[in-house]
Amino acid sequence: MKEELESLRSHQTCRLVRRSESHGSKVITCRWVYALKHDQHGRIKRYKAR
Question: To bridge 46 with a disulfide, which of 5, 11, 35, 37 should be the other Cys (CB 3.0-4.6 Å)?
Fold first, then answer.
């Protein structure tokens, strides 16, 4: 999850703000989805968050 958050920040895709500071902007909610990536032998290769 840390890698994904850093990627979003570095690409300036979104930013976190407090609801009280949104000043008329549309605030959306989100949820993290986790997945496991496996190698050709079925072993866990990577934990992925999006």
Answer: 37
